[in-house]
């Protein structure tokens, strides 16, 4: 697989600690034409393996199934390894891997496994959120993930990439293969639905005592 | 600008501001936030919620041995070169050249056992077989007949994992029902143009067997081209042969399934017959 992807320089192998760093300097993903030798595994391990857990967690949220998530992640690493000789060290390995991951997830969904899109429809969610859920005493990680999992799949993907993985809109658009305006729209609608789901619990948890401006969300 | 309009404008820009995607307008948002408590609290809530979402997602469990399984997959299948349409175009062109030139007396290539190179064998398949026979046979020839897999290769479990959750049981099915002595040596997915395959290979000495599964195209029916020899579990089994390849096959609503080998014709059909109930169960689950 040959992936052309705008990347930001300077965050290539930086791992997860600095994923929001360097939001400018968009450049084209370079292809090393001269290097036709097979890269060694330890280079691939050093560049790609640090991102394994984040790829798996994203796949898990998208598919809702651990076996399918692992299948997509394994396929991602296999595809990445097979085309690693075209990947230039020092560029955005994380964005490249996420692009391959979403390619694999879409392939799973569209062609082979035909697993249903997880998450209820937007209209369904909005209709059923008219009555807020009982206020929880705390806002647990489990409640947040449940709310996230209920989002329509496209909204959830945008939210995972931008809010969780901290990709810039432009990178998220490249990864998902959609225009940047589509990412912004899905992100906005996804956040709105998420806020609506978590509003009651969030109040009780004390993120804020009141939620001005959220009543109509 | 009155305050209400200003709040609405800030609300419309709040996601972009929070994501540091706003550019020059960020200053105007910040000026408003400095004087508007409601908008400042709204932003603080959204930022806090985003942080909670990130924290919850980052804390989701990851299987402890996932990295080891990924590395095993790379070790076992990382060198496998799936065949692309580009490869096939070149192969088909070469096959046509061989046919036209009549150049059958070519030298032996690596991987060939009988002295007939892959390109010639495939040219004969292209020329002499029906299209649905070819669908299974070409994959067997390319991925099994002309590939070498180590007899002591990956474990059955590792091979099964490579097929993904819906089709991992195929390895055990072949292991359980292949003619005596044949051992599963490879399991993978491969592709030819738009057609994708799942392929399990078993070998014992010179005996070689492939279970080949592919999605059934619109209008494709084995009954149109092959001879039905018996019925098993409510499906018709078809049989054919080409050169020393024995082929048995059946179709379901979504898949074409082939068993191709160089064992005897009856052994080949019996093996597919034995596999059929378990295969249908795999397909039933996959098609849900």
In brief:
Chain A has helices spanning 41-48, 52-63, 66-82, 93-112, 122-128, 141-149, 153-164, 169-176, 180-205, and strands spanning 7-8, 26-27. With 217 residues, chain A is mostly helical.
CATH-defined architecture of the largest domain in chain B: 2-Layer Sandwich
Structural class based on helices, strands and sheet pairing of chain B: alpha+beta
CATH class of the largest domain in chain B: Alpha Beta
Task: Characterize the largest beta sheet of chain A: strand count, sense, and whether it forms a barrel.
Answer: 2 strands, antiparallel
| CATH superfamily membership of the largest domain in chain A | RNA polymerase sigma factor, region 2, helix turn helix motif
CATH superfamily assignment of the largest domain in chain B? MucB/RseB, C-terminal domain
Structural overview:
The complex is a heterodimer of chains A (217) and B (288). Chain A is an all-alpha fold. Chain A folds into two domains: 1-32 and 40-116, Rna Polymerase Sigma Factor, Chain: A (Orthogonal Bundle), CATH 1.10.1740.10; 117-217, Winged helix-like DNA-binding domain superfamily/Winged helix DNA-binding domain (Arc Repressor Mutant, subunit A, Orthogonal Bundle). Helix content of chain A is 55%, strand content 2%. Chain A contains nine helices and two strands; from the N terminus they run E-E-H-H-H-H-H-H-H-H-H. In chain A, strands 1-2 form a two-stranded antiparallel sheet. In chain A, helix 2 packs parallel to helix 4, helix 3 (66-82) crosses helix 4 and helix 4 (93-112) packs parallel to helix 8. The longest helix of chain A is centred in the C-terminal third of the chain and has 26 residues, at 180-205. Chain A is globular. In chain A, 42% of the residues are buried. Chain B has 288 residues and is an alpha+beta fold. Chain B has two domains: 3-58, no CATH class; 66-286, MucB/RseB, C-terminal domain (Phosphorylase Kinase, domain 1), CATH 3.30.200.100. In chain B, 49% of the residues lie in helices and 20% in strands. Chain B has helices spanning 3-18, 26-35, 37-58, 66-77, 85-101, 118-128, 131-145, 156-162, 169-177, 265-286; strands at residues 183-192, 195-204, 207-215, 227-232, 235-242, 245-251, 255-261. Chain B has a seven-stranded antiparallel sheet with strand order 1-2-3-7-6-5-4, sandwiched between helices. Chain B is elongated, with a radius of gyration of 28 Å. The termini of chain B are far apart. At the A-B interface, helix 1, helix 2, helix 3, helix 6 and helix 7 of A face helix 1, helix 3 and helix 4 of B.
